[in-house]
Amino acid sequence: MSCLMNCLGYPKPPRDNLSDPDLTVVRLFSKQLKREFAISVHTPPPQLPLQPYVFIYSHGNSENIPLSQLWMDDLCRILRSTFICYDYLGYGETSGRPSESSSIVICEQILNYAKQNYPESQIVLWGRSIGSVPTVSVGRNSLVSSIIVESGLSSGLNLVCEKPVCKCLDGFKNVQKLGAVNCPVLLMHGTDDEVVPFRCSVQNLQVLKSKYRAQQDLGASKIQSDVKQEIQENVIQESAVKQTDLMNSQIQNAQNETEIEFETKTQNQLTRSGKNWHYAFFQGGHNDLDTACEKQLVDIVIKFLKNVFGEEEFTNCSVENKKVRFQRKIDASRMTRIM
């Protein structure tokens, strides 16, 4: 069944290698896979001060490094950060047959590669479509700062069935792994996605919401236990009353419904569940988020990153940065210094 899932997830890897001659491709060797794989490193032009963050971007099924180049160059300028993109086995200049397990192995190695120059607290994992699978898998076993899932799967069978008949035969199980992720997560999905149904994103959100509620319930129980212990130890009655009021207030906050915000002009919807966010692009298709909906995508990503790293971070970041042009020749010394 794993072979069937891999065929479903990677139906026709693109081999298009046409790209800008200035594209820098690095080849790493995987001892576990016993083969080389290609990655590309993208940094903004010198006119845009580089921020100390690196994004590991896992592309979709119909993409590879050359086909992702323009978007990576745009994102590194928009966010003034380093972006690393990589190919799965069988994609672009990387040989082999793609699979869920091999994509996870490669993503893990790239994370270790990035950690040579960045602490995990400054690393963001970003996965689009099938790229959400290695992103979530690696993210749950690491201490990265945050995870961005764009048009991501909930599971392989959920692509074709609303309620899978046999979960044991399923693959690409993001919906199970998200429960073990400890960092903030941003889910983004178009409501009219014709490739990965919007229900997949809703299922992923439900897992994050359930985890958040469980954490809140645990916190409320601890507050209640601490207050009871304080009263039992004959603490001054007035203090106990104040603590009880505080307990009731915090328990009430823990039981509040998830925050939901609508953008009245577009009907896009932002749902917040603690540190986890879900953004629905109204009538957005699978390939609309980074094209027709580019500005909305950039705005919500920046808003999310500011919530993770602080309002003072990611200033002067917007789609306007795309107007800053790259130099035709790569500054080799700058590349060496960055990576």
From TrEMBL:
The keyword Electron transport does not apply. The keyword Transcription does not apply. Gene3D superfamilies: alpha/beta hydrolase. Coiled coil: none annotated. Keywords: Aminopeptidase, Hydrolase, Protease. It comes from the Eukaryota. This is Serine aminopeptidase. It comes from Hexamita inflata.
